[in-house]
Amino acid sequence: MPGRSADRFLARRGDTVLIEITQSTAPAVKYAQCWEDADILLDALDVRAGDNCVSIASAGDNTLALLAQDPRRVVAVDLNPAQIACLELRVSAYRNLSHAELLELNGSAPSRHRLDFYQLCRRDLSTESRCFWDARPDAVAGGIGAAGRFERYFSIFRERVLPLVHPKSVVDALLQGGTPSRREDFYTRTWNTWRWRLLFRIFFSRFVMARLGRDPSTFNYVNGAVAERLFDRTRHGLTAIDPADNPYLQWICSGRHLTALPFALRAENFEPIRARLDRLTWRCCTLEQYLEGVEPGSIDRFNLSDIFEYVSPRQYSRALEQLARAGRPGGRLVYWNMLAERHRPQWLSARLRPLADLARELHGKDRAFFYSDLVIEEVLQ
Disulfide engineering: 270 pairs with which of 25, 78, 99, 196, CB 3.0-4.6 Å? Predict the structure, then answer.
């Protein structure tokens, strides 16, 4: 086991130090869960048996969800080694734990045994990822699905802001869901108070989100009132979509999954994912770096998360051109817009075709309700 002190962590082989990580230089987990609805992603990608897929790793959930569709292979890509460590630990958990233990390790269910479960998983991790998680026993003990900056932002909202708006009984009533008319009536009569409107607009403002929630670079290419746009999407998420069937809303409001789970964590998907883990590989690099070495026309499906939020329109267009070159005709690209609008430029119309009707239909059912748009593009000849 790596040696450890309060601020210095070493991975050794005999007397040789392989890696040294300090608290100040260690990479940070931005997202400890995938906050894109995997059911929507799978419907949008329409993965077929034998497909070759490329997926932004993020925390690993949606990359693993792709395996349930019987692809030939999935390559996960992320430039942040902390996100690769999240993916590696999840892969090891599918190999070494039961489904119930996986839920406990993730934080979806209560547990006092997460550090024990981690020890079962630890042996399959790379030296880098083992060192990363060894240095974070508190993050493991608290549930690895809560270990990211974005999740801590939601925990502040849940523990400090939401109690100023509504008592727990009202929050519990919201999460019980109900018929569309019941949800709309509950929102109008009970939930949408002046306190809710005021504190939401403060906490989900550009200023607060950039300091506590998302990477400040997310806002480099965002125009307009951030909180107002998120407020409208949140009303949609609380009324048009049943909270009793929404694992993302349940985690935001309760810190765990109550009556619904994301696709990769459901019992019926556990064994299909576990049986195909050998089809998954990962690379710690940018998407552009990975695509430079890909044969033209060799990839069928791309899960791109919301990575284009962070780049300029010019960088986005260049990346799309690379994706179109790497994609097999008939293949698909799927990505989300949250605050920065990104759609295929006209000059790529001969290479990529938007599937706008399908995207609009699926976006209306998207349980990760805070995204402003879902984009599906088909690779052409």
Answer: 99
d(CA 227, CA 293): 40
Give residue 214's pLDDT: 59
The better pLDDT of the pair 370, 357 is held by 357
* Whole-angstrom distance, CA of residue 51 vs CA of residue 45: 11
Amino acid letter for position 68: A
User: Which residue, among 267, 263, 291, has the nearest Cα to 60 in the 3D structure?
Assistant: 263
Only one residue has tokens 């009569």, namely: 189
Enumerate helices (H) and strands (E) in the chain, giving the number of each: 19, 10
Find the length of the chain: 381
Bridge partners, 10 (sequence order): 3, 20
Residue 378's DSSP bridge partners are 332, 353
Pairing of strands 327-337, 352-354: unpaired
Cα(39)–Cα(365) distance, integer angstroms:
10
Q: Pick from 202, 189, 192: which is nearest to 157 by CA?
A: 202
Alpha-carbon distance of 194 to 200, in angstroms, equals 10
Extract the tokens encoding 132. 């990363």
What confidence tens digit (pLDDT) does each residue in 20-77 have?
334 344 679 999 999 999 999 999 999 999 999 999 999 999 999 999 999 999 999 9
350 burial level (CB within 10 Å; 0-12, 13-18, 19+): exposed
Give pLDDT tens digits for 122-144.
999 999 999 999 999 999 999 99
Give the model's confidence band at 12: pLDDT under 50 very low, under 70 low, under 90 confident, else very high.
very low
Distances (CA, A) of 271 to 68, 97, 184: 9, 11, 38
The mean predicted confidence, pLDDT, of the chain is 90
Rounded CA-CA distance 15/6 in Å is 21
